[in-house]
Write a structure and sequence with these properties.
The complex is a heterodimer of chains A (115) and B (114). Chain A has 115 residues and is an all-beta fold. Chain A is 0% helix and 57% strand. Classes of the chains: A mainly beta (115), B mainly beta (114).
């Protein structure tokens, strides 16, 4: 079983719909992240959370919200989806340390298409 | 602010040859980490190798090594004896001390030809 699991893997929906992407992890990490990947732009951070009571905006949080339901679960919501939110979305986790050598561990991604 | 630049949008290499993927970075942090990730066509992000700014030696992990030149602010990934399965997107990323996120480059698409 994957350490970081994202559901769904693929989703096609219509403009204006509310969408929730879910992420769960078995790595026991405190820190969780949501990234968005667009062609030619690499990955950009949407939101991150250091624990259940800590939620922080990343560089592109507008149009998104998150919920940290438990240490192992971090969900991303698009309240009213728009076509330019079509992208590949990644959840990631890392150990609770400020040391710069800790990699982030990624889920397999969710391909979201908004028509 | 931190920035990663990968200047090679695409690379084509013959199987079994070595390949170097370029990465330059910019940061004012005295302590930072550099990472390389592989993204195959299936989409997942796979952590390959890490280099710390204070590490005296270049990092190595199997066929992957990192050519770290701190003065030039470069952290190039070297893949020895390339294989068809190495065909993928490769991302360079960095994280400063205490930083909350990884900053990614735009990626290099590597294609290994048989």
């Amino acid at each position: 079983d994957a350490d970081v699991t994202q559901t769904p893997r693929n989703r096609i929906t219509k403009t204006g719909k509310r969408i929730m992407l879910e992420c769960s992890q078995t790595k026991g990490h405190d820190r969780m992240y949501w990234y968005r990947q667009d062609p030619g732009l690499g990955l950009r951070l949407i939101y991150y959370s250091f624990d259940v009571k800590d939620i922080n905006k990343g560089e592109i949080s507008d149009g998104y919200s998150v919920s940290r339901q438990a240490q192992a679960k971090f969900s991303l919501s698009l309240e009213s989806a728009i076509p330019n939110q079509t992208a590949l979305y990644f959840c990631a986790t890392s150990d609770s340390t400020t040391r710069e050598n800790q990699p982030q561990h990624f889920g397999d991604g969710t391909r979201l298409s908004i028509l | 602010a931190q920035k990663i630049t990968q200047t090679q949008p695409g690379m084509f290499v013959q199987e079994k040859e070595a390949v170097t993927l370029d990465c330059t970075y910019d940061t004012s942090d005295p302590s930072y980490g550099l990472f390389w990730y592989k993204q195959p066509s299936s989409g997942e992000m796979i952590f390959l190798i890490y280099q710390g700014s204070y590490d005296q030696q270049n990092a190595t992990e199997g066929r992957y090594s990192l050519n770290f030149q701190k003065a030039r602010k470069s952290a190039n990934l070297v893949i020895s004896a390339s294989q068809l399965g190495d065909s993928a997107m490769y991302f360079c990323a960095m994280r400063g001390r205490g930083a909350q996120k990884l900053v990614f480059g735009q990626g290099t698409r590597l294609t290994i030809n048989p």
